[in-house]
């Protein structure tokens, strides 16, 4: 708004003029006059304000008069125009009145018809709305009826679909507020009822699936055991075929047929034994209710609690009796979870199943560690290990890692074998204690097969006539059975444990069994329990048979370990029972030497200064030869040829030492050539005995027996030599006297007396020429003493 300025007046002083201007400006600008009025009253001069207002009023009246005078003529003309317009309006009004009367007379019937049409149309709309409302109610009632029917039949999913359809298509469009309120109240209650019902079914399934899981685990592990048994049978057939091939039995026709192991057995029969329908039904219903995540969490937590409960090991029942149920329950649990993971549509995640399996493996490992630490029987540990390995095979089929379980089994490998060695030590000690060390008497073929063929102890492929007397005592087959059982138990523990090549481990423990346990037990028996030549001979014969048995042990271990026999043969070591074998032969030789010493004591009856010599040998040697011939005739029925040769060689060597020792001893002060010639006959008889063993042994072995008498033979040859001084010649000495000790030669040569050395003989031969042999012998003695 443009500010209006009131012109100044001539009267009043400058201050009043100023106040008057401010008042005029405020009024023109429609401003608040309150401050000006308060100021006037505050100054006590309200009359001045009134005077200013009066002045402003007069000024404005004058302005109005001026405006009215300026526009008066225009106003008069406007009034005239208005009057002429009023007359036109009156004529127009009468014309409109006439037109309206005509329109009313024409439109009254039409309006009456229009009112009837509008009323009919309104009724039609109301009827259509009623029909539509009735249709909606009918459809709603049909859905409600269908929902009730599905609820009564337990078809909760279809009932929920009906409720969803009611909420989506009819609830907002239902014309009946009462029906709508009822639906709004009943639908949540029906959903809660359905949730409770399916939750109860799921709870019942959780209870039932625990029993089913245990049976399922036992069935799956049983199938793994059956498959393993079929593999073992196939391997046995293969080993038999290899053995037949090795023995070149060309007339034996064999065939290996691999049976169908029924890999799909679990899919066809085992997994049909449990029903996941209640689980999937409950999961589907919760998905429909929009509670999928809550049900997934509820399912996982409940199954985790069940698994935790399965981990409990009863302290009232020995683990040996409950271990199958324990592991079968866990196996069945994860078989079920594997099926749920594959077919549950996301009910459980793979990571969750893997976490549960890791927890289960950790718990099983801790249980095994604890239980294994308490076990003191190898068979118990083997039973549990076998079942755990079957569990591992079963779970590997479902893709679960089992390395941790196999590591626990491998960790206790040494303990198992120590327990097994301890058991075998007791069994071997009992077998040896029960043995009478008599040859086994076998009446039937099955006894021969059980005690000889099963350990490949036979020396001929021809079946002998029965009854058959074996060359060994009962110790041999009893210990063979113990060792074979050890091998099979060891292989059973090592196999199916994740380690493909374990022959070296089996061989290591087999070596320990043979060298530490069996060899030690035999040594104790040899050194403490044997009495008499017969038992010692039987033990020596047993050791020879054990040598063949040890070959069988290593071949058997190789076959069970699945490696070629040529590799086992390549890695063979020396006979592991060497100490016991040597001790047995040494004891037999010692007893025989004692017997021989009894006969050699007759050497004291020899006349060392006889005038003639015996052609048939001295008495002692005849007794010795009779004993040796009797020994050979008896021993060849029991002892192997090489053992008999070693024993005879040791005995003959002892006889040779005793003859030389007699000449060397204090009992013989002097002897003459005739006595030496008698000893020469004795030694020839013994050498003849050795040569006569060639048909039994061999020509080379007979020569070795003869060489056992070499010391006495060389000593006699030297004493009978015409030129004993040749002993000093290195070439001759190496060729003819290489085993003689020069100190013994000196001592014995000094005792040799010539015929002229008789008492008073020197008086008649004084000044006679000295015997060249005697002279050579004296020279030999003198030079040997100088060397000494």
Description:
The protein contains 28 helices and four strands. The longest helix has 108 residues. α3 packs antiparallel against α4, α5 packs across α9 and α7 packs antiparallel against α8. It is an all-alpha fold. The N and C termini lie far apart (163 Å). Pfam families: EXOC6_Sec15_N, Sec15_C. Keywords: Cytoplasm, Exocytosis, Transport.
**Net shape:** elongated
Tell me the fraction of residues in β-strands, as a range: under 5%
Strand order in the largest sheet: 1-2
Radius of gyration, in Å, reads: 65 Å
Q: Which structural class is indicated by helix and strand composition?
A: mainly alpha
Mean pLDDT, nearest integer? Answer: 80
Tell me about the largest β-sheet: 2 strands, antiparallel
Number of helices: 28
Total number of strands: 4
The N- and C-terminal alpha carbons lie at a distance of 163 Å
> Low-confidence runs (pLDDT<50, min 5 residues)?
1-11, 248-272, 758-768
In percent, how helical is the residue content?
over 70%
Family: Belongs to the SEC15 family.
Keywords: Cytoplasm, Exocytosis, Transport
Subcellular location: Cytoplasm, Cytosol
InterPro entries: EXOC6/Sec15, EXOC6/Sec15_C, EXOC6/Sec15_C_dom1, EXOC6_Sec15_N, EXOC6PINT-1/Sec15/Tip20_C_dom2
